[in-house]
Structure formats: C-alpha cells, structure tokens
Amino acid sequence: MSMIEIKGLCKSFGEHEVLKGIDQNVEEGEVLCIVGPSGSGKSTMLRCINRLEEPTGGEIYIDGELVTDKNVDAMRTKMGMVFQSFNLFPHKSVLENLTIGPINVKKADRKQSEEKGLALLERVGLAEKANEYPRNLSGGQQQRVAIARALAMDPEVMLFDEPTSALDPEMVGEVLDVMKSLAKDGMTMIVVTHEMGFAKEVADKVIFMDGGYIVEQGTPDDVLNHPQMDRTKDFLSKVLV
Amino acid sequence: MGVYLKGFLIACRGIPATVAVSLIAIVIGAAFGLLLALCSQTKSKILQVLAKVYIDVVRGTPMLVQALIMAYGIPWLLQSWGVGFKWDNYGGMVVPAVIVCGFNSAAYLSEVIRSGIQAIDKGQMEAARSLGMSHGMAMRLVIIPQAIRIILPAFANEFVTLIKETSVLGYVGVVEILRRGQLWNSSSFETFPAYIGVALAYMILTIPLSKIINGYERKMARKESAA
Questions:
Q1: Of A73, A88, A90, which has the smallest distance from its Cβ to B132's Cβ?
Q2: A110: burial class by Cβ within 10 Å (0-12, 13-18, 19+)?
Q3: In angstroms, how far is the first alpha carbon of chain A from the final one?
Q4: Nearest-neighbour CA in chain B from A53: distance (Å)
Q5: How does pLDDT run across A210-241, given as a tens digit for each residue?
Q6: How many other CB atoms are found less than 10 A from the CB of residue A66?
Q7: Do residues A69 and A61 lie in contact, with contact meaning Cβ atoms separated by under 8 Å?
Q8: pTM score, two decimals?
Q9: Ramachandran class of A212: left when φ > 0, alpha when ψ lies in -120 to 50, beta otherwise
Q10: What residues in B contact A155, CB-CB < 8 Å?
Q11: pLDDT tens for residues B203-224?
C-alpha cells in the first residue's frame, strides 16, 4: 500500500480547469519533486492533497484512508505543509509557533511540547531564536521555523509548496539544506519546486506537469537529463541555463 | 465662575451612570458584534441574510427611537398581550438602556470586526488549518488575536461614540450626564452653565480616550514601518 494515492484528481476554478485527472502514488520514504511552468497545476495538486483546495473530482488516500470533508482535520495532522510565504503566526514567538499545534490539536503536554520544539529548532539551527518573534527573523530563518512547525506535529509526510521561491538567493541554500537532511532521515516528501539542482540531488522521482496533466515522470536523471517529451525539453531548456 | 464649577460638578455626578452603561454596552457590542461578523462570513446564506438585515435595521434607525421602542414600546406590547411587564421589576430603566446601546454598537462593531478579520492574510488560516486545527480553533487562536490588534483603534473610537450616544438615554429615564445637567437647569435656570458643565463632563471622558487611541495608532504605525 502506498502512503499517498492520488486517483483521477480534478480541480476547476469556475470554468477554468487546473487539474485534468492526476494519478500518482507516493511511497513511504520517497521524495517526489513536482516541476513545471507557472499555472501548470503543480501547487494546486499539492494543496488538493491536504484539501486546502477542495478537489472537484477524484480521490486522495493517505495510508489507504480516503480523505473526506469529515476527517480532513485528523488527516491534516499526518501531513506537514510548508508554504512559499512561510505563514508563521506573527503574534506568537518562534517556540509558540512550534507548540501551538501539538498543544491545541493533539492536546499534548505543554512542557513536553516545548522541549520537543526546542529540539526541532536545534535541528534547523535556530535554537537561539526560540523567544524571538517571526518579524525579527530573515526569510530563510522564517522558512526553517515553518519547517520545524510542521515537523512538530510528527507528520508522516511533508508537503512543500515552492519553499524557496520567496527567498533572497543567498538564503535558498540554508532552507534546502534542512530539506535535504529531512530527506536523508527518510521523511516522505512532496516538493513543488523550481530548484532543479535540489530535484536532481534529492528526489527519488520527478514529475513534470503542464496544462493540468502529468506530462512526464521518472527518476531525476530520466526527466531532467534525458526528457522524452518536447514540452519537458522546452521547459528545461528555459530553466536550466 | 462658581456657578460654572457647580454645573460641571453636577454633570460629573452622571459620569458613573454614563460610564457603566457604556462599558457594559461595549462588552455586549463586542460579543454580539463578533457573532454578527462571523455570521456574515459563514457559508450559510440564512445566517448571512439575518446578520445583514439586523445591521441594516439598526444602522438605519436612530438610537433614540430604538431606546424608546425597547424601554416603552416592548412593555406596552407585552401588556397588550396580557403579560404584566415592567422594566422596574427587572432592574429599572437602565436595563433596556444597556441592551439598546449594546445591540446598537454591535451593528457598527460587526463591520469593524469583519474588516479586521478580512485584513488578516489568507495564508494564516491555511497555515492553521494545515496543522489540523478546525476552522473555529484557527479563528480563536490565530485569526482573531491578530485581528484584535488591527481592530483596537476603531473599536475604541466606537467606544467614544457610544459614550456620546448614551446622552439620549435621559429620554428613557436613565440619569446620566446630560440628564443631571437638565435636572439642575430646570431647578436653577442656570441654562448656559448647566450645559457647558455637561459638555465638559463628556470631554473629560472622551478626550483622554482619543489621545490614547492616537498614541496607540502611532505606535502601531512605527512598528509597521520598522518591520
């Protein structure tokens, strides 16, 4: 059984069809990178997995369990999400950002949650920032906190929605390094990204999306170095200078 | 000069009533206003329409008229149905006065609260929901605490407005600041000192409050530009 099964996923915004039937499985411990031009539906696909966008058709299974309106809150605790714009809670300290989920959603013990939060901050290299507020952190630091916040819920899979696209170039590396170490530790990850270097180095599988379809998929070497489809070749020739 | 001081001091005796009514009313207004704001943002069309109608009715009628309906109209109606009802048996005329002020300011505050909630970036709700929070928990822990900071100045302005609006409550038997002045005027015939005293009594409430609000807004603006 795959950890995530996506079957016939469709999504329309009014008349506009963004996803036109996506089938994809993600195995435990696998790192899946989704690449493609803007508007190809890759972010929408990711957001449909944890139902931030409600699919208009198709089914998503996590651990074999269908995600529905009814169980969505519980299912989301299995999926950590990292956003392009970080979305840290500005009225909470860094450590509180990490404990608000466990304490309120999982009813975890405050003290244990704080200890775990500090350990996670250590892991992303920001232990000394625990009592700062997000606005005092750089973009790269905020995104590392956002990753730690998602990890604090002990997710089975991490969803990354263009996690480095809003960052200044010199801060991209520190965020990618955290993601690489997560991948090395065996975390299941789905990453929407424009970082082809990251995809080549870390991904187990790459899918190229365009126009609401998966155009091509395979190992990073297959898709990024030896693409078969003209649209993939065309896209890669523009991004890989 | 002594007569002006006297007029001021007499008006000041109405301050406890004015402040008490305004404070209780703003609490009712905040709570019910939040409920209205949440109703107008739900998916339920019925709740949306109910909130809209309520807000339109309250904002479309003078508070004095609402006070007269609540204080005298409702007891009349109940008595015509054979229910012996007098506000005096339920705490006096200050009760309908507080109710009217509270539910009146709720209509105005709901708009303030709604715009405050809408000003919070959509990503905040998404981040909260992605941690597994229900919509209600996300509102309570993430959205509303942030919205309050944005709302606070407008909320305090509504409180200043409310303090001044309570001056109509003399018509329904609440002896607040204006009513104190009117009563003294009708016995002393010191008309100008009486009403100047009333004006000053309102000012010592409203002007410090406005200063505090301005200070808070400046502090927030500095914070914004620093961030």
A1: A73
A2: exposed
A3: 39
A4: 10
A5: 999 999 999 999 999 999 999 999 999 988 75
A6: 13
A7: no
A8: 0.85
A9: left
A10: none
A11: 999 999 999 988 888 887 777 6
Decide if B132 and A91 are in contact by the 8 Å CB cutoff: no
B130 and A79 within 8 Å at the Cβ level: the answer is yes
β-strands A4-13, A16-26 pairing: antiparallel
Question: Minimal Cα distance from B128: which residue of A?
Answer: A101
Residue of A nearest to B149 (CA): A91
Q: What is d(CA B120, CA B123) in angstroms, rounded to the nearest whole number? A: 8
Taking the Cβ of residue A91 and every Cβ of chain B, the question of whether any pair is shorter than 8 Å is answered with yes
Query: Are the Cβ atoms of B123 and A50 closer than 8 angstroms?
Result: no
What distance in Å separates the CA atoms of residue B166 and residue B99, rounded to the nearest whole number? 12
Alpha carbon of B5 to those of A180, B14, B15, B18: distances in Å? 77, 15, 15, 20
Q: Which residues pair with A209 in a beta bridge?
A: A214
Whether the CB-CB separation of B74 and B96 falls below 8 Å is answered with yes
For residues A137 and A119, give the distance between their C-alpha atoms in angstroms, rounded to a whole number.
19
Residues in Cβ contact with A13 at an 8 Å cutoff, skipping those fewer than 6 apart: none
B50 Cα distance to chain centroid: 20
- What distance in Å separates the CA atoms of residue A134 and residue B123, rounded to the nearest whole number? 15
Please enumerate, as own/partner, the contacts of B44-50 that have beta carbons within 8 Å and a separation of 24 or more: none
Contact across the interface for B131 and A88, Cβ inside 8 Å: no
Task: Name the residue among B170, B199, B195, B173 with its Cα closest to residue B185.
Answer: B195
